[in-house]
Fold this protein.
Amino acid sequence: MSRNGGIRWQCTWVNVSQTLGDEPIGFVEIDDGEWDVYFGPLRLGRFHERTLLIEDALGRQHRRHY
């Protein structure tokens, strides 16, 4: 992940978390185009590949930032 907390997904910028800038995160595919996002053993939320949005653990979606 970059210093400002984002990643590149198929040439598009996706904001994950500024708090975790420069920290490694993991993606586990749970369904076609749906990925759980992890920081170590902690599940941060779910990434929806079609919309390029991350839904947090409470089900709230956050807008992507370019």
Notes: Residues 11 and 66 are 11 Å apart (CA to CA).
